[in-house]
Structures are given as structure tokens and as C-alpha cells.
Specification:
alpha+beta; 8 strands
Length: 148
Amino acid sequence: MSTAELRLAYERDEDGTGKIIAVARAGAFAGRGEAWFGNDLDAFLKELRSFPLSSEKPPMIEGGYYDGKGSLAECHVRIIVKPHDMKGTLLVHADLATLVQHTPDFDVQNCASIRFLTEYAELDRFAAEFGEMLKGRREVATLMGATS
């Protein structure tokens, strides 16, 4: 087993929105993405604190570029935490991608899908850090885990 982590930073804007900068690492694999979010982060935090987590509708945030119809056209950050087994182990799944506007061609966009395992106690600690980060009392929230 090797260590894994999801690190989130939050840059608040004056209009009530903010940018999440996500970095995930599992063993030798790593990725980074950033996206703007609104009050959906409060709902994500509430879902992270629920017990047990729902496998049908697990806590999830996703952000990036939306089309004119309100659908996500280009995902830069997607984070999902869901039950993994009957022992209470949780699966953290982070899809992270670079912004296409920062690359000369969509074909050279970098994407990473990072998955690792964690436990409810660690998720509870992360949720507390995440809440403090959203309030501006903390710069980073880190969820630790391990690869299998």
C-alpha cells in the first residue's frame, strides 16, 4: 500500500463564489485541476458529514466550463466520495484536468483520474478542515488515504 491524498485550496471571490484548486496523489500518480463553485460547496460539505454515505447519491462536486444550457461541457474538477465495501471503507475519486484555454489544442489537455481508499474518521477530519477553509480560517483541507 502507498499513501494517497486529496488537497483542496479555496480562493474566495467577492461575489460569493470561489475557486477550488484540487491536487490529488495516489502512489506515483498525481493531477491538478481548478474550477469555480458557488453555494454547491455548502451542500457538498453537508453530504460529507452524513453517515452513512449514500452509494446511490454520494457526495460530489464538479466544476469547469458549462454550455449555454447549463450542462457541464468541460470538467476540470470532479470529486466523489462513496462507500467501497461493507467494512466501512470509502472510495475517493478525483477527476482533474487542465483548462483547455491554457493549451493550444484540446488534444494536449492533461487529465488525471485518481482513486484511493479512506475511512469515515479521516473523512470527518477532512470535512472539519473543508468547513474551516470555506470560512477563510484555513488555507488547505487534506483528505488522506491509501491505495490498495
